[in-house]
Amino acid sequence: MLNTNSEMAARANVRVLSFPEFDQFAESLQGFQGQYFITKRQVQEWKLQIIDLDGVSIMTGQEGAARIFNGVGKDHCFHVYFVLDGQGDVKTDGRALGTSDVAWTVPQQAFHTFSQGPIRWLNVSIRADLLQAWVNIHEDEFPRALLTQSIVKRACAATAELERIVGSLSSTSANPRESALRLAARQSVLDATMRALVPLGNHDASPDRAVNRRRIVDRALQKLEASVGDAIDTAQLCNASGTSERTLRNAFQAHFGVGPHNYVMLHRLHAIRERIRRAQPCDSVTSLCSRFGIWDYGRFARAYRMQFGTLPSQDLYGDSRWPRSAIRHGDVQ
Predict the structure, then answer these.
(1) For residue 264, what are the CA distances in angstroms to 187, 267, 309?
(2) Cα separation, 327 vs 295, whole angstroms
(3) Cα separation of 331 and 333, whole Å?
(4) Where are the alpha helices (H) located in the chain, listed in sequence order?
(5) Whether the Cβ atoms of residue 14 and residue 168 lie closer than 8 Å to each other
(6) What is the longest distance spanned by two Cα atoms in the chain?
(7) 322 compared with 316, residue with greater pLDDT
(8) What is the pLDDT of residues 244-296, one digit of tens each?
(9) How many CB atoms lie within 10 A of CB 161?
(10) Is residue 36 a contact partner of residue 67, using CB atoms and an 8 Å limit?
(11) Burial of 75 (0-12, 13-18, 19+ CB in 10 A)
(12) How much is the pLDDT for 62?
């Protein structure tokens, strides 16, 4: 166990990044991949701190807008996720995630989360072999089912200890020279993280309804992703997920905070925005919109500006309210 800030500072790479837009923020996330859909106009920059401890990675994020995030953990990597503070409700896989809760995500399993406003969060990624070594020592505390099951539950311990460790690790930019100190820092983070997760209570197992809703959502999203550029309506999503419109609507509300129709609109806006920002010199807003079956350009431009704070033409020609001068390195304020 590390006892001093100078000892805590013996850690691997620490990066602090600021992003004018959510796209760059999402691309910099480590340990999992996914897609952000902002649901309200951005109100602040996106910031990310990454601390790499050779198999245990700590990310502290500040988000700039209310959003939906659909993600999947990369192979051989488990995640423990905490909300530190923010505005409005946060849900993961349809379950409320407050500042006293913890979300556990297993490798290669999709998850869906939304927030109703900007939030700050802390995520600890743990390599599978390191987790297995911890489980072998604490086998009486850790249910083996958690190796294959993602859950959201009340945290067993406050995150204050983990935040203190992260703050100490961030206090200097010096790289570690002694592997023993680096391993001790990693062990401190791992122990503090797992103390927040286990032991489980009887009420912590995911209920059947939540599992069924996630399956419904996953099937609907697979249909949507396979039909980018096509006009997709709620009836087609119901057919793809094998459920009624009411059940589909309830599942989307639980996982994303919006119904399927509004989600489809958000998905299309973000898909067009991505295409606009990767446009070729010969492309125009009109030609790009037509590929998505949009012909009312005035109405589309208003919806686009309401969502992103810019007009499609501004993004096409690089005249954006949030300068795309990329990523600034420095301290999180």
Answers:
(1) 43, 5, 20
(2) 35
(3) 6
(4) 5-8, 22-27, 128-137, 160-169, 179-197, 208-226, 234-241, 245-256, 260-277, 285-290, 297-308, 312-316
(5) no
(6) 64
(7) 316
(8) 999 999 999 999 999 999 999 899 899 999 889 888 888 888 888 888 878 88
(9) 15
(10) yes
(11) exposed
(12) 96
The encoded tokens of residue 319 equal 């005249």
How big is the chain, counted in residues? 333
Strand order in the sheet with 32-38: 32-38, 67-73, 110-115, 90-92, 95-96
Which backbone phi and psi does 118 adopt, to 5 degrees?
-60, 140
Residue 176 phi/psi, 5-degree rounding, is -70, 145
108 touches 119 (CB < 8 A):
no
Distance CA 274, CA 269 (A): 9
Report DSSP state, residue 176: P
Joined tokens for residue 40: 């309200």
Nearest one of 50, 319, 5 to 181, comparing CA atoms: 5
Which of 82, 25, 14, 18 lies closest to 51 in space, CA to CA? 14
Q: Is 87 left (phi over 0), alpha (psi -120 to 50) or beta?
A: beta
Cα 330 to Cα 174: distance, rounded to the nearest angstrom: 14
